[in-house]
Specification:
single chain, 96 residues, alpha+beta, six-stranded antiparallel β-sheet
């Protein structure tokens, strides 16, 4: 495996997040959101992960956590994320 990376293809209010690691390259749709939510990155559910990615489900959590952390870091200051079964939600942290 090589160095992990994320690239982005921006098409206005939506686009693709491209995850790479060595010979692996996966593309996930994202949509920009509003309010505290910055964007939503859609990921295959656990049940459909292998069929849609060709990657074992044992690697799924590691991959989606990398995507979430790196996308939050790349896209805005003070961002955080929440993981769901079918998406990653990037959120702008606010003073509480």
């Amino acid at each position: 495996m090589g160095a992990k990376y994320l690239k982005y293809i921006d098409n206005g209010k939506e686009g693709r997040v491209i995850y790479g690691d060595g010979e692996i390259e996966l593309k996930f749709l994202y949509e920009l959101a509003g309010g505290r939510s910055i964007a939503v990155i859609y990921i295959p559910t656990v049940d459909s992960w292998y069929n849609k990615t060709g990657i074992t489900t044992s690697k799924r959590q590691e991959i989606i956590e990398f995507i979430a952390k790196q996308a939050a870091k790349d896209q805005t200051l003070n961002a955080t994320y929440e993981l769901y079964d079918d998406c990653i939600s990037l959120l702008q942290e606010t003073d509480r």
